[in-house]
């Protein structure tokens, strides 16, 4: 084994006391760097315009409906997505208007309304299959619908309320168009984060030649790079092409530092390698800063000179020399692209999707068939999304009936709390229930005390609601508990403006909020969707994806005359997706009060390290793919096929809790050694692949023992 497994402390199972401590710390801590005052001011201004206009034209009751639409539309623009923000505001306002109108039509009959509420909540639960952005918007629509259906008095007024809710979303969308804040800011941050992550990687490689790299920043940057044709014509030049160069820098950095295919572990070559890596980190940091802020690139003196000094070519040879030359060329491209001086991506591009003018982001109407297929795919037993939809609809209906039966008035606080805190996984539901209760306790208590003490009039109540909304928008990305303080106070002031909750006291609202949170937690205990039992399946998926990627890379050494295979790129992206899916699953599983049978924490950590090394070894080989005129290596085809078959069989073995076997890979390597093939990169890379596979077997064996 080339490297001992680095120790990493996995979190202990979540407890109530620990949840309270962590939620209080994370939810109430305001990170100043994540505050966006101008964006918050724009959202609050749009809300003030909507509330003031509706109040002047139609009165306080209609103003309350319009305020909910504008408030929710602004919150939708904060969701993590690369879709245009105005589109999110319009979609949120329109869907809330439809929800309110449909809910009011059924509100006259309790059985009918409960049936509609169950169907609407079930659909919002299934919406999580389309991603967290759609899921959050859908859940928010159900929560606000529970409030807004109490405001109209007839079908005609219900239609009017729905219309002003939609108008509120339209106003927020218009403000985003008229007053954009930091245009292309999200895309700039995504690309800058990717370059900054590679700069950090270069610095870590100076001290640890086999340091791991988390590909998530590159995946986020890839997602952000997908644009519509109109966006492609108008995006800044520095956002075009730099991601493709950044993708190619990472394997070059790794191959330069790794002793198996780069420079020796000690000696003058290693010292020069450290200098090159340090200079690369400086250049990448400078490019990241320039792209993030839209300023010229300011590279520290001597950084580029270190990369291009003639001594480098004299001191290094073989693969290390080629890697240093290529690194200098790629960094030149990064600097030029960050300056906006060229849009061709620097080096001659490989025939991959990055060679296209832009990654296409299809319009919404083209996404409908795929969205329906994704939702239909979740309609199966054991699906976490389906279980979440069943839990949410059951809890919301039970909370609504209990709230109506209790002599507390305005019982919708209970189901509103439940639908806002429930998520498909246990850990988020648990933590958000605690945060929701704590935030609601403070927000409702303070706002109700103000209302009952100062008796604000309509205008003052509206102003206080707008002020609370500004606070919510300001801390939207810094803590769920802090956000709930503002949301709870906002609802109290707004409904007080319409005279809807004048008689309800703080204890009554707090009790209903606690009831909603308890129902959400109990539902997960009764009908769970634990991630822990599925960890082996996630690990098997990652193993299979890594095996395909490694096989695609090795196979190209056998046929260098062929064009660079699209299979390499597609299998690399699949391996990254599988790795992120594993990491997300593990992050959820460690907070669950269940144990994984046959997979201890030590085995989990060791298996994760082994698969990361497998993917890294394949990446090192990809960094030195042979040129089109290179001599083929026939034995590489047999090794590639052995990798593909053995990893597929091993993935099945991992799922079935059996020990993976690598008979074909061992036979292919034995044939390679018997034939005495000599290749400066493939020989060492193949040995690294075999070591990673053996390390995985050892890890899973230890887990069984």
From TrEMBL:
Q: Name one GO cellular component term.
A: plasma membrane
Disordered: region residues:
338-365
Family the entry assigns: Belongs to the YccS/YhfK family.
What's the protein's topology in the membrane? Multi-pass membrane protein
Species in which this protein is naturally found: Streptomyces clavuligerus
Q: Is Transmembrane given among the entry's keywords?
A: yes
Domain Integral membrane bound transporter stretches: 400-522
Principal cellular location given in the protein's record: membrane
Q: Which taxonomic lineage is given here?
A: Bacteria, Bacillati, Actinomycetota, Actinomycetes, Kitasatosporales
Q: What is this protein called?
A: Putative integral membrane protein
Q: Where in the cell is it found?
A: Cell membrane
Q: Which PANTHER family match?
A: INNER MEMBRANE PROTEIN YCCS, P-HYDROXYBENZOIC ACID EFFLUX PUMP SUBUNIT-RELATED
Residue ranges spanning the membrane: these are 44-75, 162-181, 389-413, 433-451, 458-475, 481-498, 510-530
Key words of the record: Cell membrane, Membrane, Transmembrane, Transmembrane helix
Q: Is Membrane a UniProt keyword of this protein?
A: yes
Record's compositionally biased regions (Basic and acidic residues) = 339-363
């Amino acid at each position: 084994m080339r490297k001992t497994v680095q120790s990493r402390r996995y979190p202990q199972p979540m407890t109530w006391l620990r949840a309270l401590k962590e939620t209080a710390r994370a939810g109430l801590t305001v990170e100043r760097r994540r505050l966006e005052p101008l964006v918050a001011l724009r959202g609050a201004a749009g809300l003030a315009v909507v509330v003031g206009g509706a109040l002047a034209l139609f009165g306080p009751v209609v103003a309350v409906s319009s305020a909910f639409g504008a408030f929710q539309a602004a919150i939708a623009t904060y969701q993590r997505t690369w879709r245009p923000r105005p589109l999110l505001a319009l979609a949120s306002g329109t869907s809330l208007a439809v929800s309110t109108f449909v809910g009011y039509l059924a509100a006259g009959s309790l059985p009918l309304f409960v049936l509609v509420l169950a169907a609407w909540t079930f659909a919002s639960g299934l919406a999580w299959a389309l991603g967290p952005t759609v899921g959050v918007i859908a859940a928010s629509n159900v929560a606000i619908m529970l409030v807004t259906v109490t405001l109209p008095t007839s079908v005609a007024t219900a239609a009017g309320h729905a219309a002003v809710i939609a108008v509120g979303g339209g106003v927020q969308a218009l403000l985003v168009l008229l007053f954009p804040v930091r245009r292309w800011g999200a895309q700039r941050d995504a690309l800058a984060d990717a370059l900054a992550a590679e700069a950090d990687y270069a610095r870590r490689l100076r001290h640890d030649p086999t340091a791991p790299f988390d590909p998530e920043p590159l995946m986020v940057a890839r997602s952000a790079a997908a644009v519509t044709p109109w966006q492609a014509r108008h995006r800044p030049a520095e956002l075009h092409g730099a991601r493709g160069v950044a993708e190619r820098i990472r394997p070059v950095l790794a191959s330069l530092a790794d002793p198996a295919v780069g420079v020796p572990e000690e000696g003058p070559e290693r010292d020069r390698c450290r200098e090159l890596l340090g200079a690369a980190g400086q250049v990448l940091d400078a490019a990241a800063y320039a792209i993030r802020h839209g300023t010229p690139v300011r590279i520290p003196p001597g950084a580029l000179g270190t990369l291009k000094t003639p001594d480098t070519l004299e001191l290094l040879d073989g693969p290390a020399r080629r890697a240093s030359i290529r690194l200098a060329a790629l960094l030149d491209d990064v600097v030029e692209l960050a300056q906006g001086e060229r849009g061709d991506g620097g080096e001659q591009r490989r025939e991959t999707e990055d060679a296209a003018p832009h990654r296409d982001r299809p319009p919404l109407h083209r996404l409908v068939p795929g969205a329906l297929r994704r939702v239909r795919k979740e309609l199966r037993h054991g699906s976490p999304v389906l279980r979440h939809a069943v839990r949410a609809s059951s809890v919301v209906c039970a909370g609504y009936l209990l709230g109506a039966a209790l002599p507390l008035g305005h019982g919708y606080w209970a189901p509103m709390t439940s639908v806002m805190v429930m998520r498909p996984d246990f850990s988020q539901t648990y933590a958000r229930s605690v945060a929701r209760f704590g935030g609601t306790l403070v927000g409702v208590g303070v706002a109700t005390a103000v209302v009952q003490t100062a008796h604000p009039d309509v205008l003052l109540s509206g102003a206080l609601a707008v002020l609370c909304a500004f606070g919510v928008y300001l801390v939207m990305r810094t803590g769920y508990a802090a956000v709930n303080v503002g949301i709870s106070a906002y609802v109290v002031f707004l409904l007080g403006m319409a005279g809807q909750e004048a008689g309800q006291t703080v204890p009554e609202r707090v009790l209903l909020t606690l009831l909603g949170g308890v129902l959400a937690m109990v539902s997960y205990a009764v009908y769970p969707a634990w991630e822990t039992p599925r960890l082996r399946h996630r690990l098997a998926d990652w193993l299979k994806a890594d095996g395909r990627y490694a096989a695609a890379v090795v196979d190209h050494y056998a046929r260098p005359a062929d064009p660079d295979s699209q299979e390499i790129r597609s299998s690399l992206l699949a391996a990254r997706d599988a790795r992120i899916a594993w990491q997300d699953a593990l992050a959820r599983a460690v907070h669950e009060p269940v144990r994984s049978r046959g997979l201890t924490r030590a085995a989990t950590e060791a298996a994760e390290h082994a698969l990361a090394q497998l993917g890294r070894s394949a990446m090192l080989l990809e960094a030195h793919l042979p040129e089109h005129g290179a001599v083929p290596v026939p034995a590489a085809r047999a090794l590639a096929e052995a990798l593909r078959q053995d990893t597929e069989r091993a993935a099945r073995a991992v799922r079935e809790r059996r020990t993976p076997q690598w008979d074909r890979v061992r036979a292919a390597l034995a044939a390679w050694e018997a034939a005495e093939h000599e290749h400066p990169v493939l020989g060492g890379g193949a040995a690294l692949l075999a070591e990673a596979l053996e390390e995985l077997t050892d890890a899973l064996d230890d887990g069984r023992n």
